[in-house]
Amino acid sequence: MKIVFGMALAVSLLASAASAQTAAPAPAKPAAEAPWPEAWFEIFKLAPGKQEDFIRRIARADQVSAVAGQPPIQIFVHQDGDDWDVLLFKPVTGFKPTPAQQAAMDAKRKELHMESGPAYFLAIRETIASHTDSKAYGPLSAAQWLAKLDKWRADNPKPGK
């Protein structure tokens, strides 16, 4: 229940953050036909004394992504309430770096003395006590969601109707 409440809170808080991170929209399609935006939410309970190290690692990862023109991860730091420390919001963009962008990212990673691949995940996991993630549709309005549902129902009538 705590995670569900945290996710609902995060969705309401992050709608404006998500719209600020999205690229210029494609020509508008009717709400029922447009693909839904997707995002990952990651909720972390950090190891005692490791909050700053974790957040600094995220900041360095943002520096690496920035050389390829990518926006920073949206981070929310717990202040009061439930039992979590940091929530990350990551819109699903489908971004695949070009060879030049990948080279620039690799150079920045080396400049920052960052681990990569399996070594990165081992190092960052030293800062984490527990972690959960969920992929979600959004941000979108209730009207957009209902338009998609109504279109699906029109295209897929119940047998016998």
Question: Your description of this structure?
Answer:
It is built from 5 helices and 4 strands; from the N terminus they run H-E-H-E-E-H-H-E-H. It has helices spanning 2-21, 51-66, 99-111, 117-125, 142-155, and strands at 38-46, 74-77, 86-91, 128-137. The termini are far apart. Mean pLDDT is 84; it is low at 1-24.
Secondary structure blueprint with pairings:
Blueprint: H1 2-21, E1 38-46, H2 51-66, E2 74-77, E3 86-91, H3 99-111, H4 117-125, E4 128-137, H5 142-155
Antiparallel strand pairs: 1-3, 1-4, 2-3
Helix pairs in contact: 2-3
What attributes does this structure have?
disordered N terminus, 5 helices, 4-stranded antiparallel beta sheet, extended, alpha+beta, 161 residues, 4 strands
The largest sheet has its strands arranged as 2-3-1-4
Global mean pLDDT: 84
Number of strands: 4
Number of helices: 5
Which structural class do the helices and strands define?
alpha+beta
Characterize this entry briefly.
With 161 residues, the protein is α+β, with helices and mostly antiparallel strands.
